Amino acid sequence: MALLKYLPQELIRKKRDGKTLTNSEIAFVVQGMTDMSFSDSQLAAFAMAVYLNGLNMDERVSLTLNMMNSGDVLSWHDLDLKGPVVDKHSTGGVGDKVSLMLAPIVAACGGYVPMISGRGLGHTGGTLDKLESIAGYNAMPEYDLFRNTVKEVGCAIIGQTERFAPADQRLYSIRDVTATVESVGMITSSILSKKLASGLDALVMDVKTGNGAFCSSYEMAQDVAKSIATVASNAGVPTRCLITDMNQVLGTTVGNAVEIHECIEFLKNPSQADTRLLKITLDLAAHMLEISGITSDIESGFVKAKEALANGSAAEIFEKMVSALGGPNDLITSPYKYLPATTMKKPIVAKCSGVICSMDVREIGLSMVAIKAGRVKSTDPIDHAVGLTEFVQVGDSVSKGDTLAMAHIRSNSEYDMLHKKLTQSVVIGEVAPESPLTYDILSV
Ligand code: URA
């Protein structure tokens, strides 16, 4: 029998004692995640040791690259693409449907966007669940169809399969149940191992902060953003991180099919779109275009992205992507034919007059989970039709009885629960605080 290069417990002890692991030692741990030679309890102890003692930048780069190489790493060189391969990743929020518009906008400007997205978990929604509300959309296509769609259409948004970073998938599921998720080093490696496996030339990260974000404090968002920008750049992928606000629902809808409707309206009539949603989408597009070299500066990236939206080319690409991945070829013109809807729709109304001062976004997200627009466990089924539309924004003036949001529900009991939760979560007062959209921009 071959001698083990290291003993798992000795590496766990080393990290437990606050020492630095070498690349070879980290590679051994990652190998143990994939070939099961590390037990769940050993990985749990390893995760706790890392949680308590952290990882320096070299360790983060090593963990990222080793986890990335634990599965397939895509390469686009053989396809002879006419532009850079660039992507965006968001740490997640409520009503965050930006990817759905952003990918086609960037594709319309000459970028190629192979976007591998997740499903919603906890209080945040997932891009994939939203797309799966479109009849026929195949979020798990064969590899060749995914690559061909990126080449022919310019973008494809699909789901994460076990082929990408399987080591992270095992470690993440253990972190999830051992109170070790909130480690900046492991968050960095977890996100980047999956993102970098899609063979990117450049990446833009939207690190959300606020009461609806995974990084609830600004300090944590800054740590995560700095760490991601540094590690990704060290791994050879130029990366920019925008720290953006998640203290209010993004856009006017929350759910799945209802968010696709908002996205279609946005692509068809950008001048009518929610202003925060429009601004953040164009900002992220401008950074993607600049960092990937399509434009020489961010301002011209913004102008180019705005044009692609205004002249309808982004809408056309979105429709082509949906059709290439099994959906209808006329979604933009006939969305109601292909998106499920509830028969019951009732307004949630303001209990007093005033200005919308704040919202508990996490609670709003959790109330969506309660009506099955989101899920608790990754295997839970969801109801694509339920959700909220016409959601008010911080700063809006309302009179008693005005609509705070329209509830798309299945029963009166769902409505009663939502009414109670939302009227508590949306705070009406006298003066709304200034609420910036982007707090900081970091690159290395
Ligand atoms: N999302 C991930 O994919 N990994 C983390 O560790 C945290 C958020």
CATH superfamily of the largest domain: Nucleoside phosphorylase/phosphoribosyltransferase catalytic domain
The description of the largest β-sheet is: 4 strands, mixed
What is the overall shape? globular
- What percentage of the residues does DSSP assign to strands (E)? 5-15%
Question: What is the structural class?
Answer: alpha/beta
Q: What average pLDDT do the residues reach?
A: 95
Q: Count the domains.
A: 2
Helical run tally: 17
In the CATH hierarchy, what is the architecture of the largest domain at level 2?
A: 3-Layer(aba) Sandwich
Order of helices and strands: HHHHEHEHHEHHEHEEHHHHHEEHEEEHEE
CATH topology of the largest domain: Pyrimidine Nucleoside Phosphorylase, Chain A, domain 2
Tally the beta strands.
Answer: 13
Indicate the CATH class of the largest domain.
Answer: Alpha Beta
Task: Tell me the strand order in the biggest sheet.
Answer: 1-4-5-13
Q: Regions with pLDDT < 50 over 5+ consecutive residues? A: none
Ligands in the model, by name, code or SMILES, are:
uracil
| Helix coverage percent | 40-55%
Description:
With 444 residues, the chain is α/β, with parallel strands linked by helices. It folds into two domains: 77-160 and 176-335, Pyrimidine Nucleoside Phosphorylase, Chain A, domain 2 (3-Layer(aba) Sandwich); 341-429, Pyrimidine nucleoside phosphorylase-like, C-terminal domain (Aldehyde Oxidoreductase, domain 3, Alpha-Beta Complex). Helix content is 44%, strand content 15%. It has 17 helices and 13 strands. The strands form four sheets. It has a four-stranded mixed sheet, sandwiched between helices. It has a four-stranded antiparallel sheet with strand order 6-9-11-7, with helices on both faces. Strand 4, helix 10 (218-234) and strand 5 (239-245) form a beta-alpha-beta unit. Helix 1 (8-16) runs parallel beside helix 3 (40-53). The radius of gyration is 22 Å and the shape is globular. Bound molecules: uracil.
